């Protein structure tokens, strides 16, 4: 089941929750939860094992990403100084609960850590300065805003459960080619990457 995204400044047809600010409207787009048939008992063990979205309680289908980042900014994420990561919308939408592996570009040229995506904002680039001001201490600076200049939309990804790898992992050891920005990887590859990261 797809987990919800917060869309900043984008018109939506179906609203389940909304928060109005002076500059934009944030709407949480959530799938409707299906009730189990009356003759079937709920599966509490399955629900307990599956990630749930913080605000809606919806089950989250976790996806995995390999994200390229300059070491300077990657260190800011892993140290906690940077609480959000800003990206051009250049591929699939990262959603709440997804796991993101951070590939530090040269000179490191290796995966150095990972985090879980919290709230994800998809916003027109021109709305970003006002959105960042509303959110407060995000750790996103002028260099980040310059990076998304010229793009139509950008993703602002909240960093949760950040962790540094015990040792640097070369993606080539798993047959992975570092992406220009970010790309999805399958669960088996993500599990191997996490194991190597923690060993």
Overall description:
- The two termini are 32 Å apart.
- Helix content is 21%, strand content 33%.
- A hairpin with a 4-residue loop joins β2 and β3.
- The protein has a domain of 135 residues: Roll (Archaeosine Trna-guanine Transglycosylase, Chain: A, domain 4).
- Strands 1, 2, 3, 4, 5, 6, 7, 8 and 9 form a 9-stranded mixed beta sheet that branches.
- By secondary structure, the chain is an alpha+beta fold.
- The protein has 5 helices and 9 strands.
- About 19% of the residues have low confidence.
- The longest helix is centred in the last third of the chain and has 12 residues.
Keywords:
5 helices; Archaeosine Trna-guanine Transglycosylase, Chain: A, domain 4; alpha+beta; 33% strand; 9-stranded mixed β-sheet; 199 residues
Q: According to CATH, what is the class of the domain at 64-198? A: Mainly Beta
Which percent bin holds the helix content? 10-25%
CATH architecture of the domain at 64-198: Roll
> The biggest beta sheet, please?
9 strands, mixed
3D shape: globular
Which structural class is indicated by helix and strand composition? Answer: alpha+beta
What's the CATH topology name of the domain at 64-198? Archaeosine Trna-guanine Transglycosylase, Chain: A, domain 4
Mean pLDDT: 80
Task: Tell me the distance between the termini.
Answer: 32 Å
- Oligomeric nature of the chains: single chain
């Amino acid at each position: 089941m797809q987990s919800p995204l917060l869309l900043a400044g984008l018109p939506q047809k179906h609203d389940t929750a909304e928060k109005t600010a002076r500059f934009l409207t944030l709407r949480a787009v959530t799938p409707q939860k299906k009730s189990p048939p009356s003759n079937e008992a709920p599966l509490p063990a399955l629900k307990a094992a599956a990630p749930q979205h913080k605000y809606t309680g919806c089950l989250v289908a976790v996806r995995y990403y390999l994200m390229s980042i300059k070491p300077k900014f990657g260190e800011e994420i892993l140290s906690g100084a940077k609480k959000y990561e800003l990206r051009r919308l250049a591929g699939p939408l990262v959603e709440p609960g997804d796991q993101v592996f951070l590939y530090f570009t040269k000179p490191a040229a290796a995966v150095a850590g990972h985090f879980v995506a919290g709230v994800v904002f998809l916003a027109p680039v021109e709305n970003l300065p006002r959105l960042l001001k509303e959110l407060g201490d995000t750790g996103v600076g002028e260099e980040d805003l310059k990076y998304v200049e010229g793009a139509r939309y950008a993703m602002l990804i909240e960093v949760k459960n950040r962790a540094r790898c015990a040792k640097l992992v070369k993606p080539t050891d798993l047959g992975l080619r570092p992406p220009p920005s970010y790309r999805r990887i399958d669960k088996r590859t993500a599990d191997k990457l996490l194991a190597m990261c923690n060993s």
